[in-house]
Amino acid sequence: MAKVIMTASQLIDRLKILASRKTYYRNKYPDNLCYVHTDGRTSADCVNLLKAIFNGYDVNNQTPGYYQRTLTNTGDCTEYGLLKQCSNISSDFKLLKDGEPRVLYMSGHVGCFIGTTEVNGKTYNVIECTSAWGGGILYSYVNDKGERYNHKGGTRKSKWKQHGKATAWVDYPTVPIVADPQKTVYYVKKGDTLSGIAKANGLSLAKLISYNPQIRDINKINVGDKIYLTSQTKEEYYTVQKGDTLGAIARKFNIALNELLGLNPDIKNPNLIHIGDKIRVK
Fold it and tell me: Are residue 47 and residue 100 in the same domain, yes or no?
């Protein structure tokens, strides 16, 4: 019976370890469930790669010989048989999103969507074992139409048909993934906007901008950029006194008026403040 044996991030990390090595593509079942050669290379074919992972293959194993064990978690299944054990099977590739690995399927072939990854200046989001593009366990790219490329903007080879979540073996997160467990940092993913990031994290756009003074153009953020979800400085406040104006407060604390407004997104009218109001100045 299949059982959950890893988290989504662990699956991605294990596949990346194998993709970082020199590998072979070899279609030889059952002796090729990640076979380690004497030259240190690992070989597999597409379905045996994923079956090995889903049955607990130690990706750090580099001892020459076969990796062969009882396929308790997946059974001795074909590529389509592996997909059928997944959940949320769909042919809509717009559903693919970073942080949620999925088994990709086409007739006679499978791979795994891992999310946006930059390697040597090229963009990828899939790891598969294939005879294409030099052969072996390698990175590739799928777009929102299911089209398969060796990397984003590269050579198109074919088209994936369906995909599904590997929930029989993988524990998926139930909340949005962020880089910090305290949710203080977010890394930009494909399709993100600052307004969307702000909304998803319960912040106003102005508040998010105030936390990220390094952003010069709010309409230009890039995949992988670090976005702070909390203030990176100790907050300081000033209590409005009789006769104060925002301009005067800004001059008092040697900051620009626009910066002061950015620190106080709840102020809708800069000409209307009241005695006793708390104004953030840092």
Answer: yes
